[in-house]
Fold each of these.
Amino acid sequence: MALASPPRMCSMTTARLPRALLGDWGLIRRPNSSSLWLMPVGLLNDELKMAAEEESKSGGQEGTEGHQESKKQKPHPLEICKLRIIDRLFLLKHCTARFANTTKRYPLTRMIPFRWRPPHGPMTTREMKNIVWREDMPSFVLKHMRKVVVKELKETCLNVNNSDARHCVWTTVELRENSPASLAYGLQNMKDLDNMECGGILIMGSMSLKQNIEDAVKDITADDLPARGVSGPDIPSGSRLSAGQCSPEIGESRGTQSESMGSAFPSSSTSNSAAERPSCSISSIFPHFTTLPQRGSKVPVFDLSALLTDSEREELRKHHPRFREAALFFLPKETITTGAMLALWKLKGFFMYDEELLHQDSDPLR
């Protein structure tokens, strides 16, 4: 399904890839500021939608009904401007090292398409000079990719009917211990399913054991992230955000906006503390792919004990008893389930193709 999507060009690498494998990026404006933040808006759909609703409510109290209609009819031109960038950790690390510099921003303006630039594009010369790239972009993107995966997996539980045993979307795989040999044994005992070569394996890990592969990236917020130059704020729910004119500082009321700004942008006095820098291990004891004994075809292995944090896996277990199993076979059947599979693939691909390069780095997310 992803490979069948139309090819599009990555704005960073100029490589042409299937549309489903590229992330949507756009410009987000902070209120009362000339800065424009280049952000992965495709991962922030819920936050942006909530922010737009909050903005429309506040506009309804302050403006007239006709003014509200005109605002809906004439969105800011930057709202429809999108870039497409491949979701790869190594690429984001390279971009962060190049762009997150307050004194030399010209490389970032070079990637802005000509159709956006003045005098014919929606951007002004001043806006071109005030584009900001988050210094914590790799960890920020990873955090929100994980949120998308958790959300999609939850939705599969609400919309999937497993009454037909031959068409089960979820099947338990016996996993007596966390090892590839135990996984192979569990797959041998699985029943044959229709089109099971289109599925994948989710390793949830044991509930009684702590995360044994990755405590790689805890839920990183801008409050505890060290910064060398400009550090962008986090975007939790309840924010006042809209694409083209919105605030990366979310969850703040207008009265406390200045206070939260201080916590969102760490001071230089705390930026060099080594204790604040998160450790990272992105390896897994399981292979990226394994062979199904029933079909002889390979399917992906999504080791969620490495891809997700402990708290996120615990959230899934509390949401549905299915996720309390050590391993599951996931076979997408409907649109809602294919969305979950695509989200898993994108999260896995964020690390998997650059492992050798990332293992040479003492801190892969910086």
Amino acid sequence: MKSAPLSSSNNSPRPARTGERLIKRLCADERTLRKALALHTRLEKVFKQDALPNVCAYLACEILGTEDVSWEAASLACGPGEPACFELWRSVRVVLSRFEPTVSFISLSRLYNIDAPESFINVLGAVKARAIEDSAFTSPESRDSIFFSVFIWTCSILNVDNVTVPLIADDYDLEEDELSNYVRAVASRCITLSPMIIRHIEATKPANGRLVTIIQVHGELPPQLTSPVKPKSPKRERENEDILLQDAPQLKRLKPAPTSRLDGIRRTANKLSNTAAGFFVNVNTSPTSCIVANQNQNRDSV
């Protein structure tokens, strides 16, 4: 995509004004609109001269992960050459990550072709709330990493094989070893939540058994997660559940997992945490193909 030449002339159009108009067309929700406009203003300050207001507006909406911004509208905002726009978005993300998270669970789910209704997003939020108790996520540099690592770990326990450490590290220009360490930190904090997460995902499947569910779970669940075992010492499990339910009221109907099953899960987690390769499966997927897949999917739905 060939961009218009940069110019600081007083006669040149004001990018902010054009960008604001585009954002107002893209964002239907008032709260989303305010956030997008604020982020657009920040982008204007970072890039003093901006002759691509449409791209700037697209970035402001897409970084927020808003669902009401269709790929068709985003394509019009970008103009031709969407992959080039994606590269610009990645560089902007690096700049903005010093101030606030630049990814969201909604945008990650959409980018990696995962059907993510509200209940699954709430589960990710509950895992994030537990994970940030760990000191590994206290630095400003970890603002994006917490979203990546929670998303990777939660997808891994649900056997979603197209979300991996190497893939996300490559797509977002991250250090693979560093991201693996963050994923291990999430696993160490949140492994006791695994049974409740799986039960919650299973409970939200349609009663008629149709394959239109939160996530397509590949294969069978381990026996220790499906066998009905009466808990012998529920006190500790109730405490763990209470912490989770503070951030995910939708999970209140779930029962705490028995200690014997949790011990098996912890042993499995300790083995897997020795190497990132044991956790995930490599998938050859490029960011461009993800974007094109999503764009085609939305066009078909229209």
Amino acid sequence: MKRLGLLSGRLLEQRVGDGGLITDGWLECGTCRIVCDEFNNVEWDYHRVGFGILYKFR
């Protein structure tokens, strides 16, 4: 089964039913929190300081 999701303003297709979802490389932009607010089906908590997105430029 597949489900469509919204991430960073783009629709993504993900496989459902395999027991997990790999979120490596996703940005914590908050799009899901805004889009899913009407149905209250996303819980949003910010990370403690020092956790979350880490950008490395070389």
